[in-house]
Automatic annotation (TrEMBL):
GO terms for molecular function: ribosomal large subunit binding. Keywords: Cytoplasm, Protein biosynthesis. It comes from Zemynaea arenosa. Belongs to the RRF family. GO terms for cellular component: cytosol. GO terms for biological process: cytoplasmic translational termination. This is Ribosome-recycling factor. Responsible for the release of ribosomes from messenger RNA at the termination of protein biosynthesis. May increase the efficiency of translation by recycling ribosomes from one round of translation to another. Its main location: cytoplasm. It holds the Pfam family RRF. It is found in: Cytoplasm. Residues 21-184 form the Ribosome recycling factor domain.
């Protein structure tokens, strides 16, 4: 193992942390409706918890309403129940074959709660990135101890990993600023 291996491993893990943050931020809803809100809803499909997008077609009816059309007509009640119990603050209503899911407008207080949630998600991502930096630096110290690399190489490697960490933390800050602006936009 070399300093390049340690650095590339750290970079891959930090990229995964950013991807996880993006996925977590996509769950935080803004005033607009989007079908991604329902991504994590599990429907009881013949005794098996199944993602909603595998038992129904999800569409946007308008800016504030999601349309859910079950593939099987008898699944309507189970889908409606799953959306209600998902704790997303949504109240679905069946209208013929389609379940309409209106997304309520966010109050100023709710928007501020969402911003706190976004900041919390961002802080978790920063902690994960810093932990990856620590692990990489420990790997470099172990390589020096095992005499696989010199102390100069370890110092250069630590500097490179710090630059990588700074870059990814800046990416987290940028993502948070964008999401905060999106949440606070009325």
């Amino acid at each position: 193992m070399s300093t390049a291996d340690v650095k590339s491993n750290a970079q891959q893990r930090m990229t995964k942390s950013i991807d996880t943050l993006k996925a977590d931020l996509s769950k935080v809803r803004t005033g607009r409706a989007h079908v991604g809100i329902l991504d994590h809803v599990q429907v009881d499909y013949y005794g098996n918890p199944t993602p909603i997008n595998q038992v129904a077609n999800l569409t946007l009816i308008d800016a504030r309403t999601i349309g859910v059309t079950p593939f099987e007509k008898k699944m309507g009640a189970a889908i409606e129940k799953a959306i209600r119990e998902a704790d997303l603050g949504l109240n679905p209503a069946t209208q013929g074959d389609t379940i309409r899911v209106p997304t309520p407008a966010l109050t100023e207080e709710r928007r501020k709660e969402m911003v706190k949630l976004v900041k919390s998600e961002g802080e978790d991502a920063k902690i994960a990135i810093r932990n990856i930096r620590r692990d990489a630096n420990e790997q470099l110290k172990k390589l020096v101890k095992d005499k696989a690399i010199s102390e100069d190489e370890e110092r250069r490697g630590s500097d490179e990993i710090q630059k990588l960490t700074d870059k990814f933390i800046a990416d987290v800050d940028k993502l948070l600023a964008e999401k905060e602006k999106e949440v606070l936009t009325v």
